[in-house]
Design a protein that fits this description.
Radius of gyration: 29 Å
Helix content: 55-70%
Strand order of the largest sheet: 4-5-6-3-7
Number of strands: 11
Number of helices: 38
Distance between the termini: 47 Å
Largest sheet: 5 strands, parallel
Length: 808
């Protein structure tokens, strides 16, 4: 049952969309700078439209009104009617009403319903490593958010999407959903809003068009003017444009496709050629809805007017999921009448004809096909009998890409490959799906899922990695080196999710299989995984024995990989806990030499963390702090969201050791929030969990319950930028507000008010405490927020916690 409606406020004073958690934070000149490293352009934000939104004023108002009456509004209608564009326009106009942001989830790229929850989580950049149910993960993340989620193109996964939306709306009181689908989600509380075509003049209009807003004509005029500068509607052409827009039933996509022909044809010539196409469609189908015929006619007409290489590319690029780059198009689509050079020219032609949309991201130009156009291309590919062959070439290309990433995951290009894999996520999923749909492809599925280990584990997608690895291991159970590799990678993922018994079973199966096959690499990795499990089970002597045995099998330095390099942080942890600081330093020196020679940074960040732990255990707190900050910066650069809470947690321990319980409490609050998507903190290592509880108790005892809880809450509500500033000891920039290093000047009274706010007191309580009026307190609060550049009381609490230290 969907909860009662919540009215959307028309504005939000001081509102600020939540920053994407997929930001990579860099320190430049003592300031924290944020760089998006999301999967798509504007990840976690609405895409930037390259053309203006025309008309639909009344529709926009009505959809907004519908969202004030229901927290689920579904825009329905045929392909090409403008559902997605209207949804994005409405969402963008409402962004100030949602302090936690307006987020787009594109479902068209999913091959099936199995990953609907993962697609939503990825769009929100929730990188949950735990073994919890995905719906629970989403509900927990969203429960305190005031947020609008746009679910675009739900029709092919409508049942799974409906179940998820129903659950989230029931459990998340301030979640609003705007969906687009060719059919309703059909759940309680849904407001279905059919999107009409754009308004066109009536058929019986005389020589002069009657007054009225005709959005179809306005769209035609604006798009035509972009092609033919100076084009306007006038008495000489408006009747022909009106007839054309009527013939196209006011469908925006059909109009945009027709306008492209204005480069070579007049409006009357376009009309003449459309007449024949629509007559043919009407004769061939008496049952199809006229608007579907109209759109199909416009798409077919555009297809027929393309050059032959452009037609081939149109059909063949329908195998891509989401967007793709030129290299992918050349490798997948070339052949059988289409050379690589033909592909380049055909891409230019299809972009020029508005069939392909060009987008930019950090890796360069990429191309996207509208879903309606992609589906038509898929039909033509099916008719040509090329679908299976193209899907195989698509899979082979992305398998090769994944294996390139695997081979280069332990070198200087590590960060670039991480970004490449994020961008190609939709196509990698489709390639994996192919391995299950087509019989006999399970072995390649093992190769692909294993080759993506760096994406699954280093980039924070452990849950999805386990999903695919588990599927491929069930699909191909024959003894093979590919299976052995998938087993130890899945064992690793299981350890990170806290599923120790599963991890142990997978590691043992890998060990037995490696012995059977005589595979020394898999045997070494199996020993390492089992040793890691023993380490986190607090069986240190057995862990050291197994890890050292694995080390002897990685005898050739040139065979080191990033997973193997984890031997060093694992052994440094054991040495540190056993009190062998000299041994930990020797291991660190050796590991540093290997990482430096290879240009490896991810495993090195973990070596820095484990040595920081060893130094903290040895009482060398200043050195520990420097090592942990170095590790944290490397993890932020890579986007290693699994590793960030490990650094924040230990920096809180250092703060306790340095007699700074306020700083520790803020960092504990931030770490607590970061641990939630991971599951068990600190890999469930009991020795470290004991230290964690001891340090938290020390902070509470030093501060008292009230101050400790207030600072804990302040830490949990910090933005990623503010947290990085606190943990790294630098000054945040932009809208994150001032930091302790910036030393804003507060009056004595303002400082007293800020201190009480940090303890969680409300204005009325502060007024009683200071014997002043509530209105005076409110004025002080406004002055404090202005001086510090903050927007919330929790930011003030975090600032007050940091003010006692020169650096954090």
């Amino acid at each position: 049952m969907v909860p009662e409606r919540i009215v959307i406020p028309t504005s939000l004073s001081g509102g600020r969309a939540a920053d994407s958690a997929c930001s990579s934070l860099h320190v430049v000149g003592g300031n924290v700078m944020s760089t998006k490293i999301g999967i798509t352009a504007n990840a976690g934000r609405l895409p930037i439209s390259r053309t203006s939104f025309v008309g639909r004023r009344r529709a926009t108002l009505e959809v907004k009104r519908a969202l004030s009456d229901s927290r689920l509004v579904t825009l329905t209608g045929p392909g090409g009617v403008g559902k997605s564009r209207l949804a994005l326009h409405v969402a963008d106009s409402l962004h100030r009403a949602f302090p936690d942001g307006v987020w787009l989830v594109e479902l068209a790229e999913l091959g099936g319903p199995g990953l609907v929850e993962e697609a939503v989580a990825a769009a929100l950049d929730i990188r949950d490593q735990s073994g919890r149910d995905p719906g629970t993960v989403l509900a927990d993340f969203l429960v305190d958010k005031h947020i609008l989620v746009v679910l675009d193109n739900c029709e092919h996964v409508v049942e799974r999407t409906a179940r998820l939306v129903a659950r989230l709306l029931a459990e998340v009181p301030n979640l609003f959903v705007l969906a687009t689908s060719r059919e309703p989600l059909a759940i309680s509380g849904e407001y279905v809003w059919p999107v009409p075509p754009l308004a066109v003049p009536p058929d019986d209009a005389g020589p002069e068009l009657p007054a009225g807003p005709y959005d179809a004509l306005a769209l035609f005029e604006e798009r035509a003017a972009a092609i033919l500068p100076g084009f306007t509607l006038n008495k000489d052409n408006e009747q022909a444009v009106a007839r054309l827009c009527r013939r196209l039933d006011g469908l925006p996509l059909a109009i945009e496709l027709a306008v492209v022909r204005m480069r070579a044809l007049s409006v009357d010539q376009i009309l003449d050629r459309l007449q024949d196409r629509f007559a043919l469609l009407a004769a061939g189908s008496r049952t199809a809805e006229q608007r579907h015929q109209t759109l199909r006619g416009a798409v077919e007409w555009s297809f027929d007017l393309c050059l032959e290489p452009e037609r081939l590319l149109w059909a063949r690029c329908s195998v891509f999921a989401g967007d793709f780059d030129l290299a992918a198009a050349e490798n997948v689509c070339a052949g059988a009448g289409l050379s690589a050079s033909d592909v380049l020219n055909a891409v230019f032609g299809l972009v020029d004809k508005s069939i392909l949309t060009r987008e930019e991201n950090a890796l360069g130009a990429r191309y996207r096909v509208l879903e309606t156009i992609r589906q038509y291309g898929q039909e033509r590919l099916d008719e040509a009998g090329e679908t299976l062959a193209l899907c195989r070439r698509h899979r082979d290309y992305y398998l090769h890409l994944a294996e390139q990433a695997d081979a280069n995951s332990c070198g200087p290009g590590q960060y670039e490959w991480a970004e490449r894999l994020r961008v190609e996520r939709a196509n990698l999923r489709k390639a994996l799906d192919y391995c299950f749909v087509v019989p006999g492809e399970g072995r390649e599925g093992l190769r692909l899922a294993s080759a993506l280990w760096f994406y699954w584990i280093a980039c924070g997608f452990v849950r999805e990695g386990h999903y695919w690895l588990d599927r491929v291991l069930k699909a191909d159970q024959e003894a093979s080196r590919e299976r052995a590799r998938a087993l130890w990678i899945d064992s690793w993922a299981s350890v990170l999710q806290g599923r120790t018994s599963d991890a142990r079973a997978l590691g043992r199966e890998c060990y037995d299989l490696a012995q059977l096959l005589g595979d020394p690499g898999a045997l070494a990795h199996a020993l390492q995984r089992i040793g890691e499990i023993e380490l986190f089970s607090n069986n240190l002597p057995r862990a050291v024995q197994l890890l050292d045995e694995a080390f002897t099998r990685f005898s050739d330095w040139d065979s080191w990989t990033a997973p193997a390099l984890f031997f060093f942080p694992q052994r440094i942890i054991a040495a540190g806990i056993l009190g062998d600081t000299e041994g930990a330093l020797a291991l660190d020196k050796e590991g540093e030499a290997v990482c430096a020679r290879l240009g490896e940074r991810w495993a090195r960040s973990w070596t820095r963390w484990t040595l920081g732990l060893a130094r903290w255990l040895a009482g060398e707190h200043q050195i520990a702090r420097a090592l942990l900050r170095e590790s944290l910066q490397q993890k932020l650069d890579l986007g290693d969201q699994l590793g960030v809470p490990f650094c924040v947690e230990l920096l809180a321990w250092v703060a306790i050791a340095e007699d700074d319980p306020k700083r520790a409490a803020v960092l504990f609050g931030a770490a607590e929030k970061l641990w939630k998507p991971i599951g068990t903190p600190l890999f469930g290592f009991q020795a470290l969990l004991t230290q964690r509880e001891h340090n938290r108790a020390a902070a509470r005892a030093a501060l008292g319950d009230q101050d400790y809880e207030a600072l804990l809450r302040a830490g949990s509500e910090m933005t990623p930028e503010a947290l990085a500033a606190q943990a790294l000891g630098v000054k945040p920039t932009g809208s994150t507000g001032a930091s302790p290093a910036s030393q804003p000047t507060l009056t004595k009274r303002e400082h007293e008010v800020a201190a009480l706010m940090a303890r969680g007191l409300q204005n009325k309580e502060i007024a009683v405490k200071l014997l002043i009026s509530q209105r005076t307190v409110e004025a002080h609060v406004e002055h404090i927020l202005t001086k510090l550049g903050f927007t919330s009381r929790t930011q003030i609490a975090a600032w007050m916690a940091g003010e006692t230290s020169e650096q954090i």
